[in-house]
Write a structure and sequence with these properties.
This protein has helices spanning about 1-25, 55-65, 100-110, 145-160, 165-190, 195-210, 235-240, 255-265; strands at about 35, 45-50, 70-75, 85-90, 115-120, 125-130, 135, 140, 215-225, 225-235, 270-275, 285-290. The protein is α+β, with helices and mostly antiparallel strands. It has 2 domains: about 1-30 and about 145-290, Trafficking protein particle complex subunit 3 (Muramoyl-pentapeptide Carboxypeptidase, domain 2, 2-Layer Sandwich); about 35-140, Alpha-Beta Plaits.
Amino acid sequence: MCYIRRYIQFLCYIGGLYSAVLFKAQMSSFNLQRFMFYKGRNIYGLYVRGISRPGVLRDMLSVFAERGINVLYFSTTVAERGKVGTAICFFDLTDVSIPLDRLLYEIRRVRGVKMAVIIPPKFEGFIADTISFPLMLGDVRGLLIDESALKGLLRDIRMRMGSGAEAMLYHFGFEAGLEWAEYIIREAERIGAREKLEKISIAADVFRALGYGVIEEIKAFSEEPPYMEVKVSGNIECALGAETGERRPYSHFIRGTLAGFASKLFGRKMFAEETRCIVRGDPHCEFIIKERRT
């Protein structure tokens, strides 16, 4: 068992180096915008429910391609094979003459499609997904928040409330981390990932996928006593605070999240301290996570 643990630690280290290379060389932004402005264009939306199986998306998109219709946006929910999933797309009918009922008929004929509904625009040149609500992240409700709102939540509140806001942000992050860990650990074990470092590796990918930042490396790890050192690039909280002129570690919500996750993972009350921070000029953020002594 000790050999397996050391081997996983080695893989985690190599994975950290590999992720760092990907972060610098291949990563790019991804627009999650679920609405679109396109001046002077006749744009519509389509909501589809269907069975997840090979060929359904190909056949559905072929309907648009064969009619010369440009698809401007396309997104699907996560769905295991054989389960029902949903898809949303925006498409441009400006230069295409096809009745909407005919297009809908052809989409509904695709094998595996269970339901298809046109989303009409309220104004020319604007379309939004007005059907998919509420938004979900796994089995919990989610919310898309842009940078202006995040600044108010993670940065401006400190200016108004001082150190009290920092303690509050840490507490919010800690509770979020506990909830997040419960979901990650449950789903990781469901697919056979039972080692702690395997769960950390999955959590790191989810952390990145949700836009919190990139966990580039687990610099140190111990199960007993529980201890971790984590290197993070692109920390959203600290990126928002980069122009504040602070000369001390800035992260409270994210370090609280890491502490909450580690607490659930190790079954102990953990505490996270930020030792390096981009706000004070460091190239990345680093956190030490260890058991809290009361």
